[in-house]
Amino acid sequence: MSARLLFAPLAVALIVAPLAPVVVGQKGKKFSQSEVTVKVGEKLVFNNDDDVTHNVFSAAPGFAFNVVAMKPGANHEVAFTKTGSFDVRCAFHPAMKVKVTVTK
Ligand SMILES: [Cu+2]
């Protein structure tokens, strides 16, 4: 393999990383992270990379949303307008929880 082929994926990652949204997967009925941090206005993407339908919701005042059903393969983007910290859960799988912190 040439050096060019080896370094190409790294170069792409470096270019894309600062603009990429924070993605939380749902494989195996678990959120892929237990905690995530996003900035105000930055996109937080829930990606159903599992083979069952999930829900994502937050009941926290000022951060409430509810994606009633996310089929396998579905993505849902959320962004928040103020700083704070709250839990996002799945109504179908009570063990699923990810703590989201929104910073300036
Ligand atoms: Cu679920």
Automatic annotation (TrEMBL):
It comes from the Bacteria. Residues 29-102 form the Blue (type 1) copper domain. Keywords: Copper, Metal-binding. One of its GO terms (molecular function) is copper ion binding. Coiled coil: none annotated. The keyword Metal-binding applies. This is Blue (type 1) copper domain-containing protein. It comes from Gemmatimonas phototrophica.
